[in-house]
Sequence to fold (400 residues):
Amino acid sequence: MAGFEVFGDEEKKEIQDVLDSGVLFRYEFIEQRKGVFKVREFEEQFARYCGTGYAQAVTSGTSALKAALTALGIGSGDEVITQGFTFVATWEAILEVGALPVFTEIDATLNMDPADLKKKITSKTRCIIPVHMLGAQARVKEIVEIGKIHGIPVLEDTAQAAGGRIDGRHLGTFGQCGTFSFDAVKTMTTGEGGMIITGDESLWRAMSEYHDHGHDHVVNPGGRGGEGRKFIGSNYRMMEIQGAIGLAQLRKLDSMIMAMQKNKAILKEAVLSIPGVEFRQLLDEKGDTATHLAFFMQDAEHCRRVNDELRSHGCGAVNFSENTWHYYPRWEHLLEGRTLASSGWPFVGIDGKRRVVYDPRILPSSAGIIERTLVLPISVKMPEERLAIMCDALKRAGNV
Fold:
């Protein structure tokens, strides 16, 4: 499931261009770099690939979320709705801009349940963040329509689903903007790094300037522009070597997805050997990035027995009810309001009162789904021998 599997001469060539220029910084040094602008080129090609107008490269998927939320005007006192099955970065970014995360149930897509979303909207809701978890699509069309009815922007967290589509349209292009991660285990990787895409030029310019200390980014290829600043910013700039790797990886993305779809289909056939098994609902199987194969057992006990059998053959699956990085009831630092700030911020306000208390039991439907779900990560390169071992283990698991 990671682009490092296909690192080769293409990445080396792009990196060497940067090393030959001697410029690692994405801006300025016009004469020295001799026309080499890898990050800018990566942004342009990524936007073109996704079929949107603008892309802003940043240092991570987390900083992409923070920059997007900031550009959307989200801050203290606001509520942002996301789902209770996601990576912690989604709600960390919400808290970092001063807003409060509100969590919805998931459904059979393992993504945001639109029906529960409707129940969670309040007068304080300022943004909705559906997450395309484990490489597959959320019900983003329904979610965007709900947002439109209430005048609430949708920010798609597409960190785990680069290259994913619904009816040919790229994930990340349905809402006001979409964020991506290119960390070490993503399908396409730059080691660390992220991207934000949008069709709104003013939103893109705000993100572009915010991610570079608020510097005025007038039309000036390779430069920042003047020294005027409209607002304070931060530093989330991607470096040229990351942009170089991204260019090579982007050219390989569709072929990587095709390879994973092939491997997933083989394993899916073997999973059918398990009595009573059901598969995660995919809105568009052709548009699935196929980074994971998720399937539902009859109940939590059946799930445990099947996974024990898989583990005995060295093919254990992930059960996210045991996972502390992605599953709401396991986020002890969120539930207990742990922070390094002596004031207790962001869980405690300036008045010294607790802003929010999270109950680990508020998402019972999600808990019921996750506790009986098994997930197998899919690699780009899966040797036939390894696939055969996994298929045999899955067939054996059908007898437990």
Observations:
- DSSP finds 13 helices and twelve strands in the chain.
- The chain has a mean pLDDT of 96.
- The two ends are 29 Å apart (CA to CA).
- The chain has two domains: 3-252, 253-326+364-397.
